[in-house]
User: Which sequence fits this backbone?
């Protein structure tokens, strides 16, 4: 399978099944998807529809039962855990629904963690810069337990951008926040995404948030359909 | 860069208290091993050094052949101190008076250990001067001589140099033995006592380090004759058996302490692993490979292990120093013993604990897949059979390493595992039973019971560990008390410290009256007469092989005192076959009632005329059966007695004991002397002096010094037992802490939900405390039942103590369980029981 230069993610006949006692559960069925560099993509769907599973496969956190995933020009479904981890270190950033900051580290240390682990030397300076960008320069030495939910998510966003990833995966980034705080976090996410030229793939069940992305996909019972622009109606991409 | 991140995470975890429980557990295991092995070594060495005082040397070689210069040269080459001693019996003449005496001729270096005190014309000193003899006080009385008088010893005329006040290796024959005379070795030749065929005992005395003494033993083996014997501490003596039991107790306590500390380490490592699963998933999602994650978390484990080992080692060594200090005060000239063995044992313990208990949880931790960041499930709480296996191997390895006894380790391990399984079964049943009781949650108590049932598996496991920890502590507490009680009984306050012997029947009554008037209580007056056992069922007994020590060793009266100084001898000769006699006279006694500290093991106490009751070891030695006929000879008269019973005698009791007790009818016509024992307080010494003046033929034997020494040894051993109990208790508390901490997160979330739903703080606090109280009660009851069972087994099998039900255990066990767990629960959970709902909810979400 070859990928044209503008393509950043491509999947072909991607399936994920889980073996249960007595039967097999199809979580994802025949997902064919292409995402170009710089795109912002939303995957929407009800709880349990398979959105997060797809996100995990696209980001190389998990491997499919069948089918192919290409990330940054490299087929990742055939790579082992460590090779996928190295690829993630080079290209991928994450923002999670429940922030997932390490409680033992301060805000600044959480932000600089990926850069330090990747051996980057200017991690602290860049971390401070990013915390300033997300409006938390005053609280850089606070620990997660001392920060509000919104503040924690802003730290998580700063952490996601510190390695200057080519693609950012966000899993329900504002679901755990009140609407006003959620909106501020979303603004920040899109702003940074734009300024850094990052490809954004976000999973949400919030239509307003999805609408802010260039492309929206609907996940329903393991099948993915792309919502075409208003005039074109909805087309099945899976 | 990973090292920087790893160090930062480690430092923060340390500050947050995450790693402390693992560190404390490892430290406690190391501390237990280092201090215990060190303290046991020190106490053993102290007792050996102390017992050296009883033998005047660290090691004594007895021989019936003249001194071999090669042996002494070898010892000197090894840098050991040496002294020589010759012992023989001879007649001593002072004018018309004469007396058979036991002479001890010593070289100038004598004694190498302990103190010799002589009352000479020049005052008190310890110099055995050539040309002089030194007499026991009663001998001076018998011979009516004073310091400066001349005596005939064989062909030599020697001057009375002084009276022996204290002699480290005092004669063993306290009752009926010949009085002691000491002289210089260089005068022996002049006495011409040593002739071919005379019974002479030659003794080489050595002093120095244990290693060198062992070396000497190996080096001179080819030089020894068949009848040469090394003298060693008699394990049957009060000191020996106290030490023996204490060592067993310390070993057992140490093993249990290690098991507890190891369990705490395992629980804490599991908790650490579960709590950090999300952190590992996050860093893996951020691009960290599994090898890098392993580097980070294994470095934490290595740092904790290193830190804990170091602290444990230092504290253990500190404890050793303290014990050495105490021992130094207790034993004059005590040589401190430090071996690297305890340090190596400690480090090995830390490594085994760390590798086999903590490696597996940390390995599992680093294997958490990155996808967990999206799944966000709670930690995997399934049983890890590999960890169970590696943990079991670790416990067994630790026990073996520490005890060096695979059998004891294996049995104890199986017992712990068996008890664990029983407890788990009981706990699961009980927690299920709690279900109907907990219907509805309208009261704090009901909520507590419902909580207990809901965390069924977790609670069963917790209950098992709580019960085990309490059970081990209770067992040790009661065993310690039992041992102390036994020792106390051996040496009760006001135990007889003076023995009066050689009283006639008339003197006996007068003396009893006088002692009573002085307010001193006497025990039984035992009639006593010397006699020989000639034959068994008409078959004459053979003379025993020449054994210079046997005669004194087998002296039956007051074996206790004699065995303090006597030797259990390692014979280099093959035992002779056939029925051998004692080769000397025995002290025979006759009583109508069985003495209190004797126990019939076979047959009946006298139920007819002409019967004899035989001490069971001697019965074995003479290959006796009940109904056998023994022929005795007393002063030319012979008579027969039928063996009616065998007796077990408590040689540790400080009471007169006899090998042969005859039925009173047999002895009616023999003139007997009497023996009794009584306690004489320091302040009433004058009573004794007056008594001796009035009855010059009565001899007094004081065992006050020996008693004091035994008491002081027991005091020291008791202190060591208490220290170890504290250590084991600390380990048990640590297990409880680790277990309670392991549930904190889950409780935090539940409390947050309940508070959000409107439950009042007081209600929740009560519910949590009731839950712990209920757990404590259950654990206490289980622990009590198991402790009673194990105490019975250990008491009877390991310590040879009689079994008795421990009533106080049934109160103490459950109460300790309730109090300890409720207090620990309240302390450990105060953080989540006190805060406002908002902060609790935030923290719960944060987890």
Assistant:
């Amino acid at each position: 399978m070859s990928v044209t230069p503008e393509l950043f993610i491509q999947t072909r006949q991607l399936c994920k099944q889980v073996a249960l006692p007595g039967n097999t559960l199809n979580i994802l069925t025949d997902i064919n998807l292409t995402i170009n560099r710089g795109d912002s993509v939303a995957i929407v769907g009800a709880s349990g529809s398979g959105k997060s599973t797809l996100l995990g496969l696209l980001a190389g956190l998990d491997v499919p039962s069948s089918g192919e995933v290409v990330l940054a020009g490299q087929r990742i479904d055939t790579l082992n855990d460590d090779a996928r981890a190295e690829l993630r270190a080079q290209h991928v950033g994450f923002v999670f629904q429940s922030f997932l900051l390490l409680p033992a580290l301060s805000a600044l240390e959480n932000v600089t963690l990926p850069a330090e682990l990747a051996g980057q030397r200017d991690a602290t300076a860049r971390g401070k810069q990013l915390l300033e960008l997300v409006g938390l320069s005053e609280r850089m030495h606070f620990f997660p337990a001392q920060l509000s939910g919104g503040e924690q998510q802003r730290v998580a966003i700063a952490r996601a951008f510190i390695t200057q990833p080519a693609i950012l995966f966000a899993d329900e980034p504002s679901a755990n926040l009140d609407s006003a705080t959620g909106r501020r976090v979303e603004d920040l996410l899109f702003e940074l995404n734009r300024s850094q030229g990052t490809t954004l793939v976000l999973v949400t069940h919030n239509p307003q948030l999805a609408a802010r992305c260039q492309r929206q996909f609907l996940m329903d019972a393991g099948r993915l359909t792309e919502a075409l622009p208003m005039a074109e109606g909805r087309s099945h991409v899976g | 860069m990973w090292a920087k991140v790893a160090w930062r995470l480690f430092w923060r975890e340390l500050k947050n208290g995450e790693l402390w429980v693992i560190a404390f557990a490892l430290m406690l295991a190391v501390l237990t091993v280092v201090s215990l092995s060190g303290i046991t070594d020190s106490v053993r060495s102290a007792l050996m050094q102390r017992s050296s005082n009883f033998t005047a040397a660290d090691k004594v070689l007895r021989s019936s052949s003249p001194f071999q210069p090669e042996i002494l040269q070898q010892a000197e080459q090894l840098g050991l101190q040496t002294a020589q001693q010759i012992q023989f019996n001879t007649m001593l003449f002072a004018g018309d008076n004469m007396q058979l005496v036991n002479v001890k001729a010593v070289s100038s270096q004598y004694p190498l250990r302990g103190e010799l005190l002589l009352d000479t014309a020049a005052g008190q000193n310890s110099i055995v001067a050539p040309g002089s003899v030194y007499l026991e006080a009663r001998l001076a009385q018998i011979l009516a001589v004073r310091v400066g008088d001349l005596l005939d010893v064989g062909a030599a005329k020697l001057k009375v140099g002084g009276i022996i006040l204290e002699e480290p290796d005092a004669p063993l024959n306290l009752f009926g033995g010949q009085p002691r005379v000491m002289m210089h070795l260089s005068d022996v030749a002049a006495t011409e006592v040593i002739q071919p065929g005379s019974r002479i005992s030659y003794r080489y005395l050595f002093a120095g380090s244990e290693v060198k003494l062992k070396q000497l033993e190996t080096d001179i083996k080819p030089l020894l004759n068949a009848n040469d014997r090394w003298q060693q501490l008699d394990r049957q003596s009060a000191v020996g058996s106290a030490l023996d039991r204490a060592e067993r107790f310390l070993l057992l306590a140490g093993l249990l302490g290690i098991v507890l500390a190891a369990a705490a380490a395992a629980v804490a490592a599991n908790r650490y692993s579960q709590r950090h699963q999300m952190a590992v998933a996050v860093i893996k999602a951020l691009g960290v490979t599994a090898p890098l994650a392993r580097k980070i978390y294994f470095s934490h484990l290595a740092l904790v292990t290193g830190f804990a080992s170091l602290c444990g080692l230092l504290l253990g060594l500190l404890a050793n120093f303290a014990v050495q200090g105490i021992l130094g005060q207790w034993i004059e000239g005590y040589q401190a013993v430090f071996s690297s063995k305890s340090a190596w044992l400690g480090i090995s313990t830390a490594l085994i604990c760390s590798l086999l208990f903590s490696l597996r949880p940390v390995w599992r931790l680093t294997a958490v897949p990155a996808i967990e960041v999206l799944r966000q499930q709670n930690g995997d709480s399934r049983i890890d059979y590999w960890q169970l296996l590696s943990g079991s191997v670790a416990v067994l390895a630790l026990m073996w390493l520490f005890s060096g006894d695979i059998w004891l380790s294996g049995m104890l391990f199986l017992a712990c595992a068996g008890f664990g399984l029983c407890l788990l079964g009981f706990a699961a049943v009980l927690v299920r039973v709690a279900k109907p009781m907990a219907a509805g949650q309208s009261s704090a108590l009901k909520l507590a019971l419902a909580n207990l049932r809901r965390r069924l598996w977790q609670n069963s496991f917790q209950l098992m560990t709580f019960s085990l920890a309490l059970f081990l502590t209770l067992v040790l507490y009661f065993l310690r008390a039992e041992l102390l009680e036994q020792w106390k009984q051996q040496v009760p306050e006001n135990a007889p410290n003076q023995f009066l012997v050689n009283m006639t029947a008339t003197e006996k009554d007068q003396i009893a009256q006088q002692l009573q008037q002085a307010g001193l209580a006497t025990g039984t007056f035992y009639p006593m007469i010397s006699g020989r056992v000639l034959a068994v069922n008409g078959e004459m007994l053979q003379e025993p092989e020449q054994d210079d020590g046997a005669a004194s060793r087998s002296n039956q009266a007051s074996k206790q005192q004699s065995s303090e100084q006597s030797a259990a001898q390692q014979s280099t000769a093959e035992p002779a076959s056939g029925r051998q006699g004692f080769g000397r006279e025995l002290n025979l006694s006759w009583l109508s009632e069985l003495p209190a500290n004797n126990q019939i093991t076979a047959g009946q106490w006298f139920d007819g005329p002409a019967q004899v009751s035989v001490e069971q070891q001697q019965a074995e030695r003479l290959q006796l059966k009940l109904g056998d006929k023994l022929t005795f000879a007393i002063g030319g008269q012979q008579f027969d007695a039928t063996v009616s019973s065998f007796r077990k005698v408590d040689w540790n009791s400080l009471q007169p004991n006899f090998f042969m007790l005859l039925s009173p009818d047999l002895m009616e016509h023999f003139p007997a002397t009497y023996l009794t024992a009584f306690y004489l307080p320091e302040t009433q010494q004058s009573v004794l002096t007056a008594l001796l003046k009035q009855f010059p033929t009565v001899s007094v034997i004081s065992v006050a010094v020996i008693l004091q020494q035994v008491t002081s040894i027991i005091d020291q051993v008791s202190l060591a037992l208490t220290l170890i109990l504290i250590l084991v208790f600390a380990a048990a508390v640590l297990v409880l802490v680790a277990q309670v901490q392991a549930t904190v997160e889950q409780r935090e979330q539940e409390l947050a939900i309940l508070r959000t739903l409107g439950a009042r703080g007081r209600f929740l606090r009560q519910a949590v405390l009731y839950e712990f109280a209920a757990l404590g009660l259950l654990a206490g009851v289980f622990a009590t039942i198991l402790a009673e069972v194990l105490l019975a087994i250990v008491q009877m099998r390991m310590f040879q103590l009689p079994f008795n039900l421990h009533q106080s255990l049934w109160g103490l066990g459950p109460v300790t369980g309730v109090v300890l767990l409720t207090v620990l629960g309240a302390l450990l959970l105060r953080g989540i029981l006190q805060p406002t709902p908002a902060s609790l909810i935030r923290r719960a979400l944060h987890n």
